[in-house]
Predict the 3D structure of the following.
Amino acid sequence: MNKTITRILIIELFLFLALTQRVFSLDYSPEEQEWLSHVVSLRFSEVDWEPLSYVADYPEYKGVIADYLQILTETTGIEMEFIQSRTWEEVLEKFRNKEIDLIPALSLKDMIGTEVILTDPYISFPLVIASRPDIDFISNTHELEGKRVAVGKGYTSYNFLKNNYPDIELFTTDSVIEGLRLLEKGSIDAFVGHMAVVMDAIKNSRLNLHIAGKTEYVFEHRIGLPPEHAQTVAIFNRVLAGITPEEHNRIYNSWIKMNTDSADYSLVWKILTASFIIIILIFVWNRKISAEKMHIQSLLRDLETLKNQLELKNDELEKFAITDQLTGLNNRFKLDNALENELSRYARFQHPFGIILMDIDHFKDVNDSYGHATGDKILVCIASLLQFNIRKTDILGRWGGEEFLIICPEIDIEGMEKLAEKLRQVIESYDFPEAHSVTMSFGVSSYRKGDELTHLFKRSDDALYQAKNNGRNRVVLG
């Protein structure tokens, strides 16, 4: 998406006005004022991590992270002094040696074993899986087991995969672009990294790669300072919490340009029309002298190319038709087909199956209190948590609104109850964006001989209703 100079200037002007207003609108306590009078500047370091941070024009520092640091400077009066580093490991080492005071974009797991206190997260992105075009879709991280996967040396993605997926063969690189180029050459099978950084690198370097899937890990960016800066962290948290959704969006749209494909039926008609014209031309030209034979063969090759493009577009449309666009899970259409398949399989083999119907508790209150953008983030988080904790044979989808459905083949009612209870505990213990605590209620039902699908759903729906009436955040069998 191209942006004009005028639009960029307007965005910067509005950001300046918003920040200036914030300086005069945030009230500090006497203790905070006393503390800020002694904290004149903070040294920080980062690596080239476009579009989050650009360090090539040192000492100038810019990007998504730089804009958030600028908000802190304008609001608190603390100047940020940029110290250059070549690698991420060098940034961490400088912090441990007290050569810098602040790291602006840490995750909870980056500094294990180091004395550091972190702010609340101010922006978050998932870790994604990049692959070559011949691999269309990777549904979960388990599919990378036994494969060669590159990650940045010392990056969060390295720690996440090493600790949770020991069967993945990891290769470390000094930068994201180095790993992506190895992937394009075929030296590795996939690259796992920060969504914004990977997408930006693929686009700007014109690599023949794409995002094939995402992991269940969400990188929540936090600012890290040494323990003696606990008061600074508390002040920063106040400032970050006061950033409006409009300011977040302004920063996001200034630096991150995401291209998304949508179903374009006009392209299909254009291809069909072009194909028809070419066929007519071939028919006419075949009656001409043999000297034009090579030209006709060229046109036939063009027709084959158009045919292949049409087949690819049809594949995209088919995937679009069965996928929930917010969560990336199966949609209701796909779930209905899967249920019919399970019913047919039961008729042939009498193998057990059932469903788990679940609903987010008090989701309307979440939307009312925090806004629909936060509600959407929670839906995406829950989808990832559920996908990561079900069996490989289970079929998960979004049933509608805040309801999710799991189709469970080859399992009895007791097994489904254990699975539902495990999922309930995972959701209950997770720290969600802004809302923090979210729970779900579960209705579990097993298929019985002679059932219609409506009977199966009636029992599960009644059980879910009973779970809600009994206080929510529980599993009930139907």
Confidence is low (pLDDT under 50) at residues 1-24, 258-273. The CA atoms of residues 22 and 75 lie 6 Å apart. The radius of gyration is 27 Å.
